Amino acid sequence: MSWKNRQNSDAETARRRTVYVPKHFQQTDTATLFEVIRDYPLATLITVTDQGLEANHIPFCLNRTDGKNRLQGHLAKGNPLWKNLPDGSEVLVVFQGPHAYISPSHYPTKQETGMVVPTWNYIAVHVRGTLQYRHDPEWCQTLVENLTNQQEARQDSPWAVSDAPQAYVDKMLAAVVGIEIEITDITGKWKVSQNQPERNLLGVAEGLSRDTNTEVQKMAAVVGKRVLAS
Description:
Layout: H1 3-16, E1 26-27, H2 30-39, E2 42-49, E3 52-59, E4 61-63, E5 70-76, H3 81-84, E6 90-102, H4 109-112, E7 119-134, H5 137-152, H6 166-173, E8 176-191, H7 198-209, H8 214-229
Antiparallel strand pairs: 1-8, 2-3, 2-6, 4-5, 5-8, 6-7, 7-8
C-alpha cells in the first residue's frame, strides 16, 4: 500500500470510529466480541433522526446465518423511532460488558512512588450496522422465542413462549415492531489495566476479587487472565 493510500485508509478508519481506542486497549478477536454480545444482550441503540439524537435500550440476539452477522430485536409499536427512522439507516449499538472502579490502593506502586490515581476498567463493544424493520408476525415470534430461549437457559425450569396461549402471544406480537441490524463494523475496547506493570495487575485482580459485587468479580477474572498470560 502506498503512503497516500495508507493515509486515505487511516482517514477513513478515523472517520468511522465510534469510540477512542488506544492500541493497547483494542480487542479484535471476533469470537470474543460476539461472546460479550451474547452475555450482555441489553444494548443501547443510538440513532439520528430529524428529531435529533436518540438512544433506546434493547435486548438483542446475535444471528449468524447465511454468512452474515445480524442483531435482532424489537421495539414497542408505540415507540416513534420506527416511524421517524427509515429502513436502511445506519445505526450504532453499544454493548457494555463487565466494569469496575479501580482504587489506587490496589497498586503496590502506590507505596513506592505515590504517583497513582483512580481509574475505571471496562469492556465495551460498538457495532455499526444497517437497520431494517420486520413487520412479519412469524419473524417476530421467532425472534422472541430465540431471545427467550437464550435467557431462560440459565433458569432451573426454563419458560418457553409456547407455555403461553398462542392467542395471547399474538396479541403481544401485534404491539411490537421487529428490527434487524446487519453488522457492517464492530469495535471492541478492553480497558483492563493493560497499561500497568505486572505487580499492579496482580494487585488489581486480588483487590477486585474481594469485592462482593459479581460484576466486579468478573472484571477481577479478566485482569487475572492477563496476569497469567504475561
